[in-house]
Amino acid sequence: MMHFEALTVFPGMFEPYLSASIMGRAREKGIFSFEAHDLRDWTHDRHRTVDDAPFGGGQGMLMKCVPFFEAIAELTPRTEERPHVVFFSPCGRRFTQEVARELIEHPRVLFVCGRYEGIDERAYELADETISLGDYVLTGGELAALCVIDACVRLLPGALGDEMSAQDESFADGLLEYAQYTRPANYEGREVPEVLLSGNHAAIAAWRRESSLERTARWRPDLLVDAGLSQKERDLVAELLRQEED
After folding, report:
1. Domain with CATH 1.10.1270.20 in the chain
2. At the top level of CATH, which class does the domain 2-153 belong to?
3. Which residues does 121 contact at the CB level (< 8 Å), separation at least 6?
4. What's the angle, vertex CA 233, arms to CA 232 and CA 238, rounded to 5?
């Protein structure tokens, strides 16, 4: 079982999402577990203060480093497995499917969820890894942690009803997923590609691969650089990109 933890000032934010749908079912099956720790439990004043004004001035308040050091020092030995400590920051490496695959190699992952204007820089000494979800700003790290947990859980054996689902999704092979359709086969003249109705599995697989290449070339050509395409596929992509330019 993989164990996720979060160090946060809003521990109640996680439960609604992680108890629903795929996450909830996977948790009930014992595929992963989750525990939120209230950072305020490692404060020492009656107001349970976790923030203070930044040295040198500036807008807003900054999370103090001391509660983080004390919390992680106390949490680390609670299990035999040392936690892999993850902070979130614009300075971190961009989160991708490959990063999710790397994270599930760790049996215990502890997410540190910042708030306010950020965290005292000294606390980052505690990080085994720093991740960025993208070039935008969130109110807190809780939502970022939920996104990462969701992506990781989907990769754990048994989490998805169809064991092939995770293999067929976008980014599983470095490309966007192929286009998909369901009933009706014809809606007001909008027809499903005939090959998908043929029952010819080899032809369907070939169509899906081409669809994946086409969608990636159109919307995320940057992914093609490391996709490991055959020469035939590279020629197809080049033609698709030429058509896009025209």
Report:
1. 170-245
2. alpha beta
3. 65
4. 100
10-residue mean pLDDT series, the chain (246 residues): 98 98 97 98 97 94 98 97 97 96 98 96 98 95 98 96 60 86 96 97 96 93 89 91 78
SS3 content of the chain, % helix, strand, coil (to 5): 45, 15, 40
113 contacts 140 by C-beta, under 8 angstroms: yes
**CA nearest neighbour of 175 among 216, 129, 135:** 216
What CA–CA distance (Å, rounded) separates 6 from 113? 7
Helix (H) or strand (E) holding 190: strand 190-191
What pLDDT is attached to residue 226?
85
Say what the pTM is: 0.89
DSSP per-residue letters across 77-145: GGSSSPPEEEEEEEEEEEP-HHHHHHHTTSSEEEEE---TT-B-GGGGGG-SEEEE--SS--S-HHHHH
pLDDT given at position 169: 61
Contact 208, 178 (CB under 8 A): yes
Residue 166: the pLDDT is 58
Q: Options 3.30.1440.10, 1.10.10.10, 1.10.1270.20, 3.30.300.30; which CATH number does 170-245 get?
A: 1.10.1270.20
